Amino acid sequence: MDQRSTEQERKQQLIARLDASRARLQDDRRLLDEKLHPLRRVQNAVKKHPFHAFGIAAGGAFAFTLLRRRSSSRPFSFKRLFFRGLFNLAKPTIRLWLLDQARERFLSPTKNEREPYQANTP
Question: Tens place of pLDDT for every residue, the chain, 122 residues?
């Protein structure tokens, strides 16, 4: 009887260690997913250094406008004027949508993306 009880205790210890290692593996995997996910990396960089991110975005926008001005020497056409007018009408809506997306991605807390059916099994 004594040997059976020690075997049962040993089995219980091994099961507990296995559950603990599974939980640790899941936590480590979640941390790696967060560190390696490109959007989360950008999100964390913007949260840590907001002024740097703003400066990079402003510099990129300025460079884009300089490049855009050089190529705007094309002759005007009805089609070009029509699409420019449509874009000018859509700008406020596009801005609001982009701001909502930025708020959702950068200001909301990160969500746990694990599936509910993933459970610890002995």
Answer: 577 788 889 999 999 999 999 999 999 998 888 888 888 888 888 888 888 888 888 888 888 877 776 555 566 788 888 888 888 888 888 888 888 888 887 777 665 555 555 555 55
H-state helical runs in the chain = 2-36, 38-48, 50-70, 78-102
Q: Which residue has the tokens 């703003």?
A: 54
* C-alpha–C-alpha distance, residues 40 and 43, integer Å: 5
| Residue entry with tokens 């059916």 | 117
Predicted TM-score of the model (pTM): 0.35
Exposed, middle or buried by CB within 10 Å (0-12, 13-18, 19+), for 34? Answer: middle
**Integer distance in angstroms from the first to the last C-alpha of the chain?**
25
